[in-house]
Design brief:
Blueprint (H helix, E strand, L loop, with lengths): L4 H22 L17
């Protein structure tokens, strides 16, 4: 295209993607914890 529409949008996409990945790296990892079930007190 003459107005470089696709190129501009791709550059914006790449910038958003890079920002997302930078932010994602700094988030703490969520550890899946197994909740300990209390023993059945009714028995």
């Amino acid at each position: 295209m003459a107005d470089n529409f696709l190129e501009k949008h791709y550059e914006e996409y790449e910038a958003r993607k890079a920002a997302y990945l930078r932010k994602k790296k700094h988030l703490p990892k969520i550890k899946s914890r197994l909740l300990e079930r209390p023993e059945d007190e009714a028995l």
